[in-house]
Amino acid sequence: MPIVFPGFRTKALTFSYDDGTLQDRRLAALFRKYGLKATFNLNSGAFDEVQHGSHGGFSVNFSRVHAGEVRDLYASFEVASHTLTHPILTDIPDEEIRRQVIYDDRPYEDRARDLLKAFEAHDPDGVLLALSGRRLHEHGVAAGIWQDGGESAHPDERE
Fold it and tell me: What gap in Å lies between CA 88 and CA 83, rounded to an integer?
């Protein structure tokens, strides 16, 4: 049975943005203006962080949104946990992976917990297979999206 989207369409265009940088303020405003939906994958442990760097020879502000603005900024969008502090998951021990994934939703309880719907991770090596979908559900996360080889799957489907 083929997957269909609203209006029985067989293809969909999705927008997904990572890390909760200050540029999300302008992006969210543009999406609201044009009636577009998006998913913002946030790192709650990095809220309020100030970072500057360069990319392609240009100076870039990688600073993160302020914790106090999360609820209003992302109110009309889907929000997903994207780990606590955005480590390279293949470089950290299993216990730290669990902390990064499971505890990333705690700060949302006071700020925007009702916005958090999913956990998103790039998992090309299958490092997150040990974290079952049931464990994410126990912590109030509705779905986990594992991006590996261009496919997305609910974590329960990976077991």
Answer: 10
